Amino acid sequence: MQLGARLRSLRQAKGITRDQAGWAIRGSESKISRMELGRVAFKERDVTDLLRLYGIEDESEHARLLALAREANTPGWWHAYGDVLTTWFQNYLDLEQAAELIRTYEIQFVPGLLQTDAYARAVIMLGHGSKAQAEIARRAEFRMARKQLLTRPDPPRVWAVLDEAVLRRPIGGVAVLREQIEYLLEVSKLRNVRLQVMPFRSGGHAAAGGAFSILRFGHSDVPDVVYIEHLTSGLYLDKREDVDQYAEAMGRLSIEAEPPQRTPEILRQILDGLRDD
């Protein structure tokens, strides 16, 4: 996406149309469009030809963009789990790895990045209970590997607003939920993680329609992306009017939810209630 955005800005600065750029690399207007949106693999020859067309003579810029092309074409670590991952979710993982900020609102489950192994297995069983135990274990193994994102050297900031129902619903049983909430208490101490709880008493609120995530990237030319997960697919929105509407809803959620500093107290109160059970 970063490479595509850079190529788009260079093309526009020269006043070259997508059709003209496509002709230069023996392609089409639609291929240039997909390249600029980061939705197709990059051939180094194509990148080199486009840079010549756009009049870029700086060798260091050539080298930087070709390095980006090689990086973009390198399969992510999750491709090793391709046997249990759908293509549409692998697309999300590409975005997640590149994001600088991930804002998410959840109404039913703890976000995947914040789940314990036992909780993850319980969630996976809900949708894949008929699968072999080996496959369920592999899906859980992938989900635990995915959490390494939070503690890598340059982790994204994660801002999660959880509906109180997420913390009350005993997915996997009370013991599993208790362990999960204890883990949330620990992970909320990370400098790059912010948790808020939307209490029942708030009534209706800005995002009553359902769960969603907004991903922001470190390149100014790359637009935010809204991700909405369905049972058998994922929806990606990057049109400005759509993103702005979801960003407004997320902003209102963060105001209407309990402030982050109250989250540990709320989690402990819920834990106390679970012990009473």
Short description:
This protein is α/β, with parallel strands linked by helices and 277 residues long. It has twelve helices and six strands.
Which key features would you list for this structure?
277 residues, alpha/beta, 434 Repressor (Amino-terminal Domain), Endonuclease, Chain A, six-stranded mixed beta sheet, 12 helices, 6 strands, 13% strand
How is the main sheet built? 6 strands, mixed
Identify the overall geometry.
elongated
CATH architecture assignment name of the largest domain? 2-Layer Sandwich
SSE order, as H and E? HHHHHHEHHEHHEEEEHH
The strands making up the biggest β-sheet line up spatially as 3-2-1-4-5-6
In angstroms, what separates the terminal alpha carbons? 49 Å
Explained architecture:
It contains twelve helices and six strands. The chain has 277 residues and is of the alpha/beta class. It has two domains: 71 residues, lambda repressor-like DNA-binding domains (434 Repressor (Amino-terminal Domain), Orthogonal Bundle); 158 residues, Endonuclease, Chain A, CATH 3.30.870. It has a six-stranded mixed beta sheet, sandwiched between helices. A hairpin with a 4-residue loop joins strand 5 and strand 6. Helix 2 crosses helix 3, helix 4 packs antiparallel against helix 5 and helix 7 crosses helix 8. The longest helix has 17 residues. The chain is elongated, with a radius of gyration of 21 Å. The mean pLDDT is 91.
Topology summary:
Elements: H1 2-14, H2 18-24, H3 29-36, H4 44-53, H5 59-72, H6 87-98, E1 99-106, H7 117-128, H8 133-146, E2 157-163, H9 164-168, H10 174-187, E3 193-198, E4 212-217, E5 225-229, E6 234-237, H11 240-256, H12 263-276
